[in-house]
Amino acid sequence: MKNQGAITALALATLVLTACTDQGPAAPTTRATTTTAPAPPSASAGPTPTPSPTPSALPDVTVPPQPPAALEGPADADNAQAVAQYFMSLFPYVFATGDTTAWDELSGEDCGYCADITDLAAADRSKGYHEVGGHIEFTFASAMDFEDGTFSATIAFDEHPSQTVNSDGEVVEDYPGIKVTQADVSLEWRDGRWLVQGVDPTLVEKKL
């Protein structure tokens, strides 16, 4: 699993690489919204190398991600993609702290991936394991509204290096390099709240 990111490696370990729910009619009337990260500036001749960030400069994944206003609705494609990004941003926090509260609140009853991550986090806690690093940077997001309360979001992100360590600080599993990952997320708006009903992450590229 060392050649993959924690997100895709754990997905393979639990054999849940397919979304947990149907995506609606084969040819629905949809409204889509897309967000992309800004294009990087053109490189100038002889650029000054930028040093890699020190661990202290990296985001602290033990701090819970800020819940977006999109969680309160309305049910539209813009908010669906924001909720999908927020849900996946919880992943490193869950494994760094063992706190699955926010993850479980968004997890729908049909999402096997969601339940498996909760179980894996609990298993890590029972062994005294936790994750270090692995913060996520989003690079793309889009979503479709199927006009029946269900949505499909596609998000892309860079998953940064992480390690699983035990209570003595010894490395149990290493996930080196930056992993370019895409995830298809199935969402539902029901009774005034969002539910994630499926997640399908795919490793696109690994950057050493």
UniProtKB/TrEMBL annotation:
Family annotation (InterPro entries): DUF6318 (IPR046281)
Pfam families: DUF6318 (PF19843)
Spans annotated as Disordered: 24-75
DUF6318 domain location: 63-199
Residue spans crossing the bilayer: none
Cleaved signal peptide residues: 1-21
Biased composition (Pro residues): 48-68
Compositional bias ranges of the Low complexity kind: 24-47
Assigned keywords, A-Z: Signal
Superkingdom assignment: Bacteria
Protein name in the entry: DUF6318 domain-containing protein
Organism of this sequence: Cellulomonas uda
Upper taxonomic lineage: Bacteria, Bacillati, Actinomycetota, Actinomycetes, Micrococcales
